[in-house]
Amino acid sequence: MRHLLLHVGHGKTGSSYLQSSLALSQEGLDEIGLCYPFHRSFDAARRGFVTSGNREILWSAIETSDPEALFGPHDTALISGEQLHRELLPRKDAFFAFVNNAQITKVSLLLFIRDPVEDACSGYQQAVKRGGYTGTIEDFFSQYERPKTVSDFLEAFTDKPATATTVRNYSRSSDVLGDLETFLGNVALTMPPIDRINRRLTPAELAIQSSFNKHLGPSGNLVADKLCTELPDVCAEVTAPSEDVQRAMLDRNRDVIMAVNRRIDADQHYSFDTIEPASDESLSLTLEQIQVIAKSLAPKIRMR
What we know:
Layout: E1 2-7, H1 15-24, H2 26-31, E2 34-35, H3 42-46, H4 55-64, H5 68-71, E3 76-80, H6 84-87, H7 92-101, E4 104-113, H8 116-131, H9 137-143, H10 146-157, E5 163-169, H11 176-183, H12 203-216, H13 224-230, H14 243-252, H15 254-263, H16 287-302
Parallel strand pairs: 1-3, 1-4, 2-3, 4-5
Helix pairs in contact: 9-14, 10-15
């Protein structure tokens, strides 16, 4: 009887932190009969860097019809990937065909969600940091539609035979690692080496990275990644647009937000709360931040 556990995201809900813990716990999980298949990103994950999990192993196993790539010698396997909630939707038929052919008798899905305004603010940061985004936060809010993807995923995967979906709201959770441990059957996982992985950028860091994006294209590896990994304890206020912009986004997504809420436990519901924008819009950098930026850019400049 094979049991497949999938941590399916979504983004900006502590995925890199959880994947760091899982990579550090791989041997311990193997000892209790739970296979967390090796991925080349595990070394970076163990050091507390931003990673994307091992979801590629799932797609490779499906393409090659090779369940052993997931389970190894065990009957239980775990895959983690923050994009799985999106990637599974167009491939659900292939996924369930694989489940049947591989004689997987149970599929458990763990999806973390996040309150929409909070998620959109964090998503804007990530788009600038990792996606090369150059638009304003107001532009980003006008395009934000993650609740629709979540609603579509829950409609497609909830109440399927031998499939159980657990939804946890990151905005409500004080212990995402504990949520994952519970999902795995109260398994104890190793704590990552740092408390915050992939922290928020400060307004000045965000402005610098956005400017690099405009002139160089996606270039988060030059500045944002280095700032987050070398100065993980820098605290940054949430960057938020005006309350009018936030309300407009919530109103536009209201129907799908309510559709999600109808499918999940009341204590995990999306909220319609807004965030007060920072009153001080001045930009400043510490000497440490300047040194990290200079250290990162110097080799690139020297090569020219």
